[in-house]
């Protein structure tokens, strides 16, 4: 395999070579042996190589650049710009500010705050964060107000927070947070009455104009909309009919901002934007821009600079800062049955880290309004007004009017005054600032964006950001398409507003229909609608372009959009082929092993049925689809499908990265172009070769729609079954078109996870939980009240962090015999229990397994492994063979080793955070390690990683008898593994657009089985059986061939693709020379080193890779068990092969 030189990958689809970008480490220099013995090349263990995260240091000014002499401020400018650069950290990251920030919110960030490491499964996870943010001011004394004492406050907090159902976790919370609290006293409940205390809480939370606290509560009002009745209304005597839609529950945006910015959690808010740059410490390349958070984006920087250039308010010298508002809205069903629903508007602050915003437990989501729907009484009103029922176009028009009428109420005079003049807030750090709210993003699905952008749903120009014609959408990814997006971008201009105003005159004053020819002549060309946009009315005078706030949405546009459509059509193709292809597909998906903490979950149901699948389920299907679909179709369609699936998986992994550099964004742009090419090729060359019809569920859904239409018609006639209808793959959709906007949107607003609709979808769970606690009568009002109670009580929540001592308690066996998993500190590389509950007596083990090839030379190999580890504890094991004299100096205490069920490995992710993988011999047993010679593989063509399956996890107490020293007992951990080799007949990598294929290493002289230092494990690997090369014989032996799932999560993707900021860069500099002579061991009698790692490929390419862990905000607690392997350990302590 050919491989290029070290560095970042220049393009996604390199034609002949690939570059593996791996990290960099310190050079370990060892002195030359006085005896002049030959040197061997070794590298440090992965534990030493990997960079450990460091808490962010205070801003240290590295360079202050004065402006050039001619760059004098204009007369209207109020600030003299200077460039402040911070000192680069260990990862080569530095920041550039336009002015020295007044506060550094990351001064208090600890390593645990940068970790996604779970807590003990048998206890609640540790809490080291400050109290959850709330919109309620914390200045109301005493702490337990409005209750009479702390005991009542704790009990009421338990009552109105957490789950509404009884559970073990809720019982634990009651005991530990309430009953066992030191300030809890049963005497405080002598006159306790729950209803009275709840009423007291509700009364204290009512908004009051005369109160300085709790002014951000809920209000209720009706929304008035103008109703077209087809009549002329040109005089005051003939007003336009107005209909009042009841039931709008809303909160003042300004009061919510004030309360949140005074809350303790606003200490983590960023008030001053910055640009972040990354440069490898030894790289000669120029630093490249890093994109991640909104407050480090171009949009935030531009808004901040425009604000500083404005004239300050009279007699005000306060710091002027931006309050970045990010809105979400979407209607959601509140129950599985019935039509109960809620249409909430959520607000987040872009000043807050997206990692905090993504956690539902952080209370970072602020409920702003619950939009009322058009009531059934409107039909009666319209019938009395016009003598006929409203048409579908009329109902759609009125729904748009409701949405914008609600936003006119939210963008009230207080908001507009603050938008123009700012508002003075004493922030949680005690500093008074003048805060200016600015709207940056609005995340919603396509139907919601259509309502907000005032364009037609699936019109001729369906995109809310540009005016592309639907017929040109299939050109996605071409240069013409990318140029068209910029040239034809939508702009909230004067002529556009004039056309809409003129259309409304025709409807409301002249009595024309909403779809009349005169109205259509004004609006149809750009797919506009006759609704005045509330954002345009309020904010256009300040230069705000309403169309710029509609950001991309990976969840709806790709996972539930393009990929779902492609997957559905692939199922149609397999149905058209007949035979057992659909059954084979379902069986293969069921045999895909699980991975991580719900990163890949068990495909227990038939994947082809697609029953009740969420976005994360379709994401799992994509990440595992390449081996599953392989061989199900004849050539050349099998190859075409493989290329398409690889392009889809690579684009998805790249677009979903939580941290981008300019290089990875260029790769995303190349991936977009390549994906467009593959989609066109698939549609033009593969799809016409198959007679694809509706799936059974699609036909049933169409029949139900016909039946409903027949019942609603005047002359109801039974709908005759139409049979299977031919279906084709349609690429002319707005969701497909949106894929081309991701790179530019990431540059403007930060990475896609920060602007996705996923946080809003998670918040729907909260309102559904509230709904379950209501009596279903006026549920919206009760939901608002419950939200307010939880928010108020959370505001005063006392932090109860568990001490490190408690978290680090030694592992114990839980009653069912499983090893408990105590909290693991993020700075540790791995954790293996040192319990002695499962000893393995080596002499007996050797006798019982005599003749078993798995344990061939088990004890000699173990002693050689341990001896080399003791000689060079910080260097990698190369498989040295020592003489019998040297081996005899090593004693295993009591001839016993102790086996364990689980090993957990912490690793630094590409986005500079700490994550964790858990492995055990029964489930998630596959691991990846740095291949011997990989540091030379940058130029030598070697695959950078090697792979093994854990058969046993052990520790032992060993003694090294060195003459002249006292014997010392050392506890050594080790793994017993079976090795994989690369299968060079199945070339993989990004240039080949295929996954790397592995095979079991031939068992020649026991090379297939050996021992591994846990310090060498990088992280877990996800290996999927190569189903096309033969189905697994049974769950015990598994498959002969496996594919390396490079796309299992985003971190894995970046390990193969290269360019991960937090990843180690391996090159020849990490090779160290060491002397074989160590104190007490002269090295005499050593044999040749055994070959370790993978065979050198005959011809090769550089690898690339996968995606990063999505157990993020979408991962659910718990772990699925891997099914293609036994859950029971062997009687000798080894997992079955």
UniProtKB/TrEMBL annotation:
Superkingdom assignment: Eukaryota
UniProt biased composition (Low complexity): 122-138, 710-721, 1102-1116
Region feature (Disordered): 1-43, 99-141, 700-727, 1079-1137
Acidic residues: bias regions: 1079-1101
Residues spanning the signal sequence: none
The protein, known as: Uncharacterized protein
Organism: Heliocybe sulcata
Lineage: Eukaryota, Fungi, Dikarya, Basidiomycota, Agaricomycotina
